[in-house]
Amino acid sequence: MKNNIRYLFDISNSNLKSGILYGGRSKVYTDLLLMQYIGRTMEHKFNLAGWVLFVVCAGFFIVSAIQAGDIWYLIGSVIFLGGCILFLIPLVMRKSKTKNH
User: Fold this and answer.
1) Gap between the Cα atoms of 95 and 12, Å rounded
2) Residue 74: which pLDDT band, with cuts at 50, 70 and 90?
3) CA–CA separation, 84 vs 80, rounded Å?
4) 16 — phi, psi (to 5°)?
5) SS3 of 25, please?
6) How many helices, marked H, and strands, marked E, lie in the chain?
7) Residue-level pLDDT at 71
8) CA atoms within 13 A on the CB side of 60
9) Between 17 and 34, where is the model more confident?
């Protein structure tokens, strides 16, 4: 009987209530998994959108540096663009892995 006991958390009204549920997957457990999945996918989408905006800004910085003729401004902008791309790589790879599975 102890093998069938699952300790779960019921999230309601922003309070965590500990509960013991018997048997297979319950509605609370399924709802919790769904909320965690939605939270992770929403967080992933916001992170991806934010880094894409940083890449767009880096592009504008590069254009502005070229127009100004400032080599240090251009070097800094290219380094900034490279850093943004490095942060984007794991986000894009994680997204493609979830689509393949």
Assistant:
1) 30
2) very high
3) 6
4) -90, 125
5) coil
6) 2, 2
7) 97
8) 6
9) 34
Beta strand ranges found along 1-101 (DSSP E): 5-12, 15-22
CA–CA distance, 6 with 29 (Å, rounded to integer): 9
Rounded to whole angstroms, how far apart are CA atoms 97 and 92? 9
Query: Any bridge partners for residue 15, and if so which?
Result: 12
- For residue 18, what are the β-bridge partners? 9
What six digits make up the tokens of 90? 């794991």
- pLDDT at residue 14, rounded to an integer: 42
Residue where the block lists tokens 């850093």: 83
Assigned token pair, 2: 């102890």
SS3 23: coil
Who wins on pLDDT, 35 or 96?
35
Measured CA to CA, the distance from residue 48 to residue 88 in angstroms comes to: 7
